[in-house]
Amino acid sequence: MGILQVREIKKYFKQIKAVDNISFDINKGEILGLLGPNGAGKSTTISMISTLIKPDSGTILYQDKDIIKKPQAIQKKLGYVPQEIALYPNLNGRENLEFWGRAYGLNGKLLKQRIKEVSEIIGITERLGSKVDNYSGGMKRRLNIGAALLHKPELIIMDEPTVGIDPQSRKHILDTVLALNKEGMTVIYTSHYMEEVEYLCNTICIMDNGKIIAKGTKEELVGLINDEKQIHIKIDTINETLLQSIKDIEDVNDVTTHEDTIVVKVQKSKQVFKRIIDVLSQTSTEIHAVDIKEPNLEAVFLHLTGKALRD
């Protein structure tokens, strides 16, 4: 049994099904990724787990305790990093951490010690005396995470913590998540960035339109498309006759176009590739580039939903 068990939860906002009957478990020491486009239901899901809002129906258990009926069962053990920055801009970094530390019941030497430790974890020790209003977006995100770590939570929920920040801060945050997890912390991480979820997560739930449409390890999810590969061929001119000739090749599953590129989905790329080149060589078109793409989460999402993640 998982440390957290989500069973058939629903949340509607008027006629909008924000979360539509989803279930999943998360095990102790795991990083679970909730992956999906904006509006998929990720933030609503973690708001219910965080006890910020109640589901319309369903059950959420933390260590076998019903947190809908008894939210205090998770609240003291939970760190929550919201998508929006939850800091006081006119206070400096240390003052912000002191405020949130006291909110968690920390005081005196223990609070000072935890501020020191957390500041080192998030890499802002030298900027603690500066006003948050003068921080970069990445520094604010780091401090936002630091505030959620002060009370040493067992479970931390991070809602798209790298939105709108520079690459250096983004990498620091991702590495911080891995370091916290290595020390035993359980993590729920939401994102619409495929590469972040692939980098961090042991288990991935793909969400779309309020539903979980697939769940598993990266390898399990990629296996859903049966090792299908894509051959991207950029050429001069594309016409229906050429596309049909490629579709007629054995082991070609699908042919689509994007601007000046033909995208061919195949099972056996080596054998099919030669046949495709043979077809193209019989035309007057010029090949500018060829790229064979291995299956990835982007391909899985496209396969399951018929659209790219950021559509």
UniProtKB/TrEMBL annotation:
PROSITE patterns under this entry?
Answer: ABC_TRANSPORTER_1 (PS00211), ABC_TRANSPORTER_2 (PS50893)
Q: Does the keyword ATP-binding apply?
A: yes
Q: Which UniProt keywords apply?
A: ATP-binding, Nucleotide-binding
GO MF term (any one): ATP binding
Q: Which segments constitute the ABC transporter domain?
A: 4-234
Give one Pfam family, short name only.
ABC_tran
Coiled coil ranges: none
Which SMART domains does the record match to this protein?
A: AAA
> Record's InterPro entries?
AAA+_ATPase, ABC_transporter-like_ATP-bd, ABC_transporter-like_CS, P-loop_NTPase
Protein's name in the database: ABC transporter ATP-binding protein
Q: What is the lineage of its organism?
A: Bacteria, Bacillati, Bacillota, Clostridia, Lachnospirales
